[in-house]
């Protein structure tokens, strides 16, 4: 079978140990980022299966109808709105997905929190320029960490905060907050207090139609001038333009961002703001995570074409 893997930015998939799982197939890997539907259709025309990395590639019904050879989409991680599932059903294209522990994203979240509070990147760059200390950092112990959504990743970040001696509290739906309470974490008394009284807010909400734009500019405006907001989940959770406006107005005073509405985000206005630490969606981009994710995706392909499909959506 002909397997096509688009958007392998780092040209790393072929170097993964699990890549040998595809040795009986013809495989084409693209290392650039392509968003043009017509070009994607051209590239995918001979694909029996596609391996998609998270939401990097959008597949609409119009595109899918032009791919009559396509039998399977094997998704890295969970399927989201980038694939028209209803169209896949109508066109008899199977879709398989995988799952991960979220540890890589939780660890990056904590790295961004530490780097932001101690200005590590700015200070390291100053030293390379022949300069010495230029800022006053802030410790974590004794400060309040707000976790919005106590799910798979939020729970891990909450435990990191506890280990660092922070006062951790949670906001979110009742199922999320009930679980947090059972694990001994405080629940914020209100949404307003959650933003106003948290020194650091970290978002770990799953993006869907209900949660898109759930964080408003008014929420951010309640945060203090020394507060930090961290988003390693999805950019669309914050209403468009709200984060940039809030940071320009000085509340919150700093942001750490790993996700963007348009990716790659080399032209994001956040990159030019001095009070933002930006990373290029590194949350899940880690070797062990990739080995696990891609191994599942490749297994799903082999099982499907062997007549024993697994992990179908």
TrEMBL record:
Domain (D-isomer specific 2-hydroxyacid dehydrogenase NAD-binding): residue spans on this chain: 111-283
Gene Ontology MF terms in the entry: NAD binding; oxidoreductase activity, acting on the CH-OH group of donors, NAD or NADP as acceptor
Entry keyword set: NAD, Oxidoreductase
Domain of life: Bacteria
CDD domains for the chain: PGDH_like_1
Domain D-isomer specific 2-hydroxyacid dehydrogenase catalytic: 21-310
Protein name per the record: D-3-phosphoglycerate dehydrogenase
Annotated source species: Advenella incenata
């Amino acid at each position: 079978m002909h397997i096509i893997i688009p958007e392998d930015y780092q040209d790393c998939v072929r170097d993964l140990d699990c890549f040998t799982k595809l040795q009986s197939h013809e495989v084409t890997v693209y290392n650039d980022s392509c968003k043009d539907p017509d070009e994607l259709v051209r590239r995918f025309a001979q694909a029996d299966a596609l391996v998609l990395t998270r939401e990097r590639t959008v597949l609409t019904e119009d595109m899918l109808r032009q791919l009559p050879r396509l039998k399977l989409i094997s998704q890295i991680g969970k399927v989201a709105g980038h694939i028209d599932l209803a169209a896949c059903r109508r066109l008899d294209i199977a879709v398989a997905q995988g799952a991960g522990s979220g540890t890589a994203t939780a660890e990056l979240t904590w790295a961004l929190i530490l780097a932001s509070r101690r200005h590590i990147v700015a200070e390291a760059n100053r030293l390379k320029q022949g300069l010495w200390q230029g800022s006053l950092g802030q410790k974590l112990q004794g400060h309040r960490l707000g976790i919005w959504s106590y799910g798979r990743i939020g729970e891990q970040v909450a435990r990191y905060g506890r280990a660092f001696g922070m006062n951790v509290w949670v906001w979110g739906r009742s199922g999320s907050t009930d679980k947090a309470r059972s694990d001994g974490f405080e629940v914020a008394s209100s949404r307003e207090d959650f933003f106003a009284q948290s020194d650091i807010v970290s978002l770990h909400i799953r993006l869907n139609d209900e949660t898109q734009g759930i964080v408003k500019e008014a929420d951010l405006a309640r945060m203090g001038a020394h507060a930090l907001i961290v988003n390693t989940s999805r950019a669309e959770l914050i209403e468009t333009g709200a984060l940039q406006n809030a940071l320009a107005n000085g509340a919150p005073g700093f942001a750490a961002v790993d996700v963007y509405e348009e990716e790659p985000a080399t032209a994001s206005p956040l990159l030019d703001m001095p009070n933002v630490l930006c990373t290029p969606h590194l949350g899940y981009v880690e070797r062990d995570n990739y080995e696990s994710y891609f191994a599942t995706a490749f297994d799903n392909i082999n099982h499907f074409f062997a007549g024993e499909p697994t992990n179908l959506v």
